[in-house]
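How it folds
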Amino acid sequence: MAKSELNWMIGGPQGSGIDTSANIFAKACGQGGYHLYGKREYHSNIKGLHSYFHLRVSEKPISANVNEVDLLAAFDAETVVRHLEEVVSNGGVILEKEDLNRKISEIPTLPREFLAKHEKRFGHAWAETSIGDLIEEARSRGVEVFPVPFLDLLKEVASRLGIEKLSKITRIKNVLALGVTFGLLSYDVELVDKSIRAVFRSKVGVADMNISAHRRAYDYAKQNFGDRFPFVLSKLDVQDKRLLVSGFQAVALGKVFGGCRLQSYYPITPAADESEYLEAHEVFGLDDGSGSIVIMQAEDEIAAVNMASGAALTGVRTATATSGPGFSLMVEGLSWAGNNEVPIVITYYQRGAPSTGLPTRHGQDDLRFVIHAGHGEFPRIVLASGDIRECFYDAARALNYAEKYQTPVIHLVDKAIANSSQSLAPFDKRRLKIERGTIIKTWDDPNVNYKRFEFTNNYMSPRAFLGTPNAVMWYTGDEHDELGHISEEPLNRDLMMEKRMRKLEVASAEIPLEEKINFLGQKGAENILVSWGSPKGAVVEAMEKLHHEGVSISFLQVRLIHPFASKEIGRLLKESKRRIAVEMNYSGQLANIIAEKTGIPIDNQIVKYNGRPMTTTEVYEATRKIIFGKARKREVLTYGS
């Protein structure tokens, strides 16, 4: 049967080509007219431990992953053990034929916690069962199994290409798995060849080698498995243009088109992906010609944030990017920027915490930290993106907020968005408007000192850049007067504190409501889901599914976290009987902020903190249980491997 939606997973040891395989698969399906959403999961060690990529392919737009897997392509035995239960009835698994006789206890990379959990579930004899035993159980529930002699195919390809040492092409195994996948799906082989050439566009010989391997595996699948897999993926007749873009790429592009011309950083996962992407595209084309951005790798995060402040004082639109431990080091520099009203943007990629925590896994644990980070009180704007499209526009918007209100802006993204990929219509650059606030290009009266921190009615002082003719200015970490000179006088202190802090009142009044919140569904629905950040996609899909079942439900996404849209959010929450918060942290940080700012308690919480993103499946199931009175006040989601 033709398949309008397919959930495909590929897994194996880190460093074995998982990302390359997923990239080729996604490009091939995208060129065939399909919508895509994929997530990447990988260990924090450099090489060897389990990693996988889950790609969802659909004729309709999609915004999250689900629990179910239709076709699993396993590079190794561990992938089979970890993910076989996720394969649905009528689904399939591709695996190495030689692994069938291997015992689970012989897989050295399976962690003891994983083994202990399954031994508790199935008994101590479980570890001594073989992969073949697991496969037979899967067959009994309707899973098709496709054992492939990958090593033999690899030898054939090597012989055909005249390669004597097999070790030179072992990484081609990932393309062999792709070939079997597309052979089972009877997919257009030319589109796959085109995708391989796109991925290896700078290496023609490598592309040819991979195409040869892919075609051999494709033919093997057709010859040996025929039509045993019940789904066919056919090319669609689609004319609209789409991008296949990751979250970190969307942020980088938003900064470039938003006028950012210097980014500082110190490498840290997952934030470094964005800066490295910008480094690879430092010179770029614009509608009015070419442009460039300077990327500076600093010696540490303290230097990175202070470097950003220094550049911003010269008039350059500036950003830095980091993750939890790096932001901890930036806090003193953040305080300095807040004290001196410096317009910098910090893109904060959240990950599992505390401390080093889960360096390559997901989390939303840092919301309160970001709002309150720093000693003393100073203003900052905190904006949280909920999907990849928002990442692009918010990255540009954050630069506007920073300069218009002369304050640091923290753009919150999380690992689930950063390392997910999605097919989208091209971004509309015409929606981006650069707003720089009040800037003076020269100081006309040399007999009157320029006051960098002048008291004004709207609390924003006319900003001059370092080097502006006749505009002499002072910056210090101490409290200062209008000129920037150190002052400890009580009256000046009162005025300066009020000047800085009341910027948030101005920002809250001026920022449009559609930039503060998103609301989907019918106002006054009996149930309202409230969330922020990456759960958005799963929440939206779960809400739509429940709506089709006749459930009265709506969704409120909080985007501008600080300053908080208390009145607007409070009004929407009051109109619903049941309020359910959905978050990727232990304590329900947004739920607590809502109660603090509005006085309205959240009735139920859906939380997850195991380091894996939320899926549509588990959000739907948990929400349904709550609505029909079959859940606890706090539902904890645990899906993921």
The CA atoms of residues 391 and 435 lie 18 Å apart.
